[in-house]
Amino acid sequence: MSTRVRPRNRTARAGVPLAVQAMEGKFAPKRIDSAALHEQLSYRAAGNPPGTLPTSAISNCFPGLELDFRNVWKKLFDGIEMHEADNLVVGTDPGHEDLRFHRLVKVTIPGPEGNIHQPIIVNVRGPNTNGTEIDLGAQALEWSNAFAELVAAGGQKVTCEFTREKATDPVGPDAETRRVTLLVRKFFEPESAVIARDLVEPGQLTQSLCSPWQNDYRECACYYWAASRPDYVNVETGPQGNSVGENWMQVRGSGSKQYQPDDFQSPGLFTYEDMFRRWEKVLRFEIAGQDTD
Amino acid sequence: MRNFVGRYLPPPAPRGARKAAAGKLLLPNELSWHDYAVFLLHVAAEVEHSLMVQYLYAAYSLGGAEIKDGRHEDARQWREVILGIAKEEMGHLITVQNILRLIGGPLHLEREDYPFRSDFYPFYFKLEPATKDSLAKYVVAEAPEDWLKTAKGKLIRDRARKADNQREILPVGTLYEKLIDLFKDRHALTADDFRTDTEPYQANWDEWGRGYGDGQRGNMGLTSPRGTPHLLVMRTTDRHSVLDALHSIAKQGEAPTLDTGRKNPDQKSHFERFLTIYEAFPEDDPPSRNIPTNPSTVERQNDDPVKASLACTIITAPESLLWANLFNVRYRKLLFTLKHALHVKAGDAVDRPTARGNLIAWTFGEMYNLRSIAGILVTLPLCEDGGDARAAPPFEVAYTLALPDWDSDKWRVQRDLILASARIIRELDEQLGPTHEPHREYLRALRDHDKRELEVVETLLTAAADFEAEQEASS
Amino acid sequence: MTIRGLRILPPFAIGRLGSSPEPLENYDVRVAEDDPLGFRQIHGAETLVVDRHRGTIVRSYTPRSIKFKDAGGRVKPVAPFLEVWADVDGVLVPLTTSLLAENKLSVDDVEWRAQVGNLKAFRRTNKPPDRIEADTGWFRGHGLHLLTGRCENFLRGRSIPFGDVQFISPGRKFPEIRLRFTPAKGLIYGAKKRSQEGDLTGGVVYDTRRGTWSGYSDSYARPTSIVTAPSPIYANLDDPRSTSRGYLDDECDGIVEVRIMADKRPVLQAFARIGAGPPDFAPDSFPVRTVADELEQALLGPNPDNDEVSLEWTEEIIRRAFETVRLQNTAALNGNPIDGGVANSMSTQDTNWNRAQEPIMAPAIVDSKALQALHQSVFAAIRSGSATWFGQVLRKFDEVGDLTDRGRRKMPAMMRGADGLHLALTRRQYNAVLGSGNKQATSEDARAATFTAPTTPPGKETE
Question: B352–A237: do the CB atoms touch at under 8 Å?
Fold first, then answer.
């Protein structure tokens, strides 16, 4: 039974989130209760601008900007290593070799109010090209939300259901499974807000990012991280009442403002070479949505 | 739609004539068939509009600090259900505009201010806090003919009549039956009466539905029956689709069980939902706030004894009055912007967002504003000299919702509305006491939002004016 | 005051690359009270100036304005400080020279070590000799310690600099025990083979006779499902196999640790994590879902307590939504045709599932300014005390696979989540939004508010 005491945040004020208070410079305590882990997590050291804070780092990692946070979950189960972005077992310790390349389908977490059955796979559904709504396939959920309840069971054993056979292709949520009991690692070091040492090793949080990161900047459109890697800048109201602006990655210049859609090749956009050789020059900081510097 | 409505009633049946065959419509003397269709649609629009407003008021009235413990959950649930119904009325209102477009009639978002009487309205227009009596009226107004003949139906009908100053409630369904008969009649409305090019000027589900379908929205906590609210915003392209739309609206109102043949067989009608609430609603001590009947911002003359009983209550507390004024301005802005949006083509290339996108966003913004301001009003005092009574949203009608002819002038109206708001906001800001910090924060956000909107409006006004000047010069 | 234990705060510090020798100054970011829907404002904040030769803080000042690049146009790196805090009787306080002295310890007993890695090549090739790792080993004193990334598959004598760490010498004005991590310059390294002249701003380091990173292809992976998602995301020849050019960068992540020695044994220890990524190019705007949200969910669980939720939290989420929309060409992202083509967006990505390609929302309503206005209206409504009514419009964490029109129009819209499907908030964020309505329902003022959300406890919402 998971009876782990949830960390009590004894001193933080409700209201404005701590992360926001930190960036505003309004949260700079000189004493922190040792059990106030949320405060420790949110702490902003002297001299550190808000860009040092986790609240400035995106976490819809596909693969990510500052880190690929998905890697933090790979070794949550003692004895196996999961793919950071899939329910596939990619590594095993001695004793669990039989799970290699099997897929995790469900986890049962014992809870104080009964077991929690956590599905790992969702059905993808939508209209096909004929407009008929059909099942389009299955996808493993991102770990952060899938394992949200599991973290509290750190230090305990839980029942996992894996596919009976190796399954290098994705399977649906109703795949045939067999049960294996595994120990859940603790996510944080005891009495601390730092991610446990044995959960992720140096280099692992960035290993699945683009190499080099400049490549990703050139390729990724703005549907990921506009608040960190902007897309649409120098925006004004056009005569039609709609907005008129520029693509952050486009060559600024003469002529009327016209957004250049990102298509890897357009001459109006920065090139890979620009990114590799001159990124500091060509990429602009946007303050109030306008080119600065 | 004022007192001339009487002139557009069909001529009386000749003495001794047998009852007209079902579906046989009689054309009023001063109208052609097409015109009669437009007229009836105008009536339908007003009915939907006034019902929506009265239902919203009833919903806003439920809850409050004064009601007993344990009643909050009931109040909240009933409020949610009634709000869902009000949203669906909005859908009806919009769909009726679409039909008007299709047959080339002018749009109609106007409404008669209270007090009012009309032979087409289900009951006297009355903004009042929810009671078992008022709910009886709503039930009967949405009820199907057959149910009204049952014992229970008769009982509730009697009660409703009493609550409506002894005037018989006219079920809304009757009006729609007339409309359906009219549209079915190929001699009355010929193919010629249907335009073929109005789609870009109609409201469509994609733009206006906002996901309010099958209970996917507006049903948090599942207080409304499954599958509701289900906003009907139906585009119409021909006679068949008009009949479809009219049937759907009627069904959503009155069907004993709405049979949509879709995946939500228990999408209950307005009638059913109101009936459920009515039956559970207490006889005395309703869980509603101490808000007035027919609140208003100005003194009204009442010589008619009937009207006197529908008397208005003026809001006299100064701060409340300002909020009420603000409410009226935003209410007008909501209707005007909706109308305006339906006059802007949905993009000549479907690829580009247009001013229409802004207008639609602003329309929804105003809905949220009305929600917010109503929420504030019902916590403020009604009277200058204190007391327990609370203020309430007056929904007073503007002097006009007419769209000016030139595009630039349409934007001028938008500017006017923003400026009027700005004045009230400024005054409120000065008046607000220190205990009203959240209200002040809201006003700031609203003012900020309006400032941005004004920038866009000014740009569009200039662009439109320039374009018009060019047109003039070249003609 | 006996020290029972140590912590390093913050437990996770993010550095950002830049080639300027001047690190980015400190600033605060605040919402302007009289412009609540406007951009957050940047205000200079206390900046510690370090003399890197002596390892001391020579002065502190508050800049009047912040320049993100230096006079030469070089990006200023973000070089975070990490402070050591001491647990004294259950309360953490900054570790200072005097606290050390009270415990019969001295600054000279303090040792640090940093270990970082860049395993990007290794992640693909799966060959341990492709691991690039730096380890300062335990050190004392206040000199600069370079984070030199070494790799078996590098040419002899070559390495990738990942920056440096420095134990700042505490003084009278700044007596705290702190380390500073300065990230690298943002250069590109690689192999001569398959690289383009001029790309390797950091130089040639990789030995193609020993290693296969240059020439690697995700298509070689067996089974193919072990590759990264997305893939392939390394600089390549743009050929059908996406053959890797073998480029490497100087990003890294890892651990810094501190220990205090007494009688040659460590008596107190702690560690924290660091990482270095690209600059934040829109520093006045913040993303909707962040690493802070992930860590908070892991720490505190997906169901916030009633006293943890607040309108301000919900407001913050909506603010970030319109901050994001403000910097997005939402018309393009929606899948509206532009210049005859359709931009790369979720609308096109969904076709990978054989979903019909369609704009996500009605094309007319998705202009960036219009959507901003809408979000800002919602924001204003929350401010008015209206409890959140739009909970149902948020995508639940397990609804990410719903690619129907209704599903795709839920919020956050048009963005990709970590599983490649449509983005959902963390469960904690989702429950907080719903829960802020619950709070309204149960508090005194809530009785007066018009619209409240259901009284079911947060997180127990079922459908």
Answer: no
Number of domains in chain C: 2
A111 touches chain C (CB under 8 A): no
pLDDT per residue as tens, chain A (293 positions): 333 344 555 455 558 999 999 999 999 999 999 999 999 999 999 999 999 999 999 999 999 999 999 999 999 999 999 999 999 999 999 999 999 999 999 999 987 888 999 989 999 999 998 889 999 999 999 999 999 999 999 999 999 999 999 999 999 999 999 999 999 999 999 999 999 999 999 999 999 999 999 988 877 655 678 999 999 999 988 877 778 899 999 998 766 678 887 765 677 889 999 999 999 999 999 999 999 97
Residue A238: its chain B contacts at CB < 8 A? 459
A203 CB neighbour count, 10 Å cutoff? 27
Q: ω before B28 within 30° of 0 (cis)?
A: no
Q: Are B55 and B86 in contact (CB under 8 A)?
A: yes
Alpha-carbon separation of residue C179 from A16, B224, C12, C27 (angstroms) = 30, 58, 13, 20
Asked if the Cβ–Cβ distance from B459 to A242 is below 8 Å, we say no
pLDDT for C59 equals 97
C162 pLDDT band, cuts 50/70/90, is very high
Tokens standing for C177? Answer: 């025990």
* B341 neighbors B208 (Cβ within 8 angstroms): no
pLDDT at position C159 = 98
Decide which of B385 and C53 is more confident.
C53
Distance from CA of B182 to the nearest CA of C (A): 33
Answer whether B365 sits within 8 Å of C338, measured CB to CB. no
- Residue extent(s) of CATH 1.20.1260.10 domains in chain B: 1-12+20-289, 292-475
- Are the Cβ atoms of C228 and A63 closer than 8 angstroms? yes
Amino acid at C158: R
Distance from CA of B69 to the nearest CA of A (A): 26
pLDDT of residue C438: 59
Q: What is the mean pLDDT of residues B154-163?
A: 95
The mean pLDDT of chain B is: 85
Q: What is the DSSP letter of C365?
A: G
Chain A CB contacts of B348 under 8 Å are: none
> What is this structure's pTM?
0.90
* CA distances to B18, C67, C185, C323, C427 from C283, in Å: 80, 11, 19, 11, 26
Please give the residue range of the domain that contains residue C404: 291-448
- Give the chains touching A; criterion: ≥3 Cβ pairs < 8 Å: B, C
Same domain, C304 and C435: yes
The verdict on a CB contact (< 8 Å) between C447 and B64 is yes
pLDDT beyond 90 at B302: no
From B357, B379, B453, residue closest to C364, measured CB to CB: B357
**CA distance to partner chain C, nearest, from residue A42 (Å):** 7
Chain B closest CA to C322's CA: distance in Å? Answer: 12
pLDDT, average across residues B165-193: 91
Instruction: Examine the predicted complex and report whether its ipTM is higher than 0.90.
Output: yes
Suggest the residue from A16, A133, A235, A242 to mutate for an interface test with chain B (most B CBs closer than 10 A): A242
Beta strands in chain A (DSSP E): 32-33, 80-82, 89-92, 104-109, 116-119, 121-127, 133-140, 157-163, 177-183, 232-237, 243-247, 285-287, 290-292
CATH class of the region B292-475? mainly alpha
Report the Cα B443 to chain-centroid distance in Å: 25
Contacts of C37 in chain B (CB under 8 A): 445, 448-449, 452
Q: Are residue C328 and residue C437 in the same domain, yes or no? A: yes
Residue of C nearest to A59 (CA): C290
Beta-bridge partners for A82:
A89
CATH code of the region B1-12+20-289:
1.20.1260.10
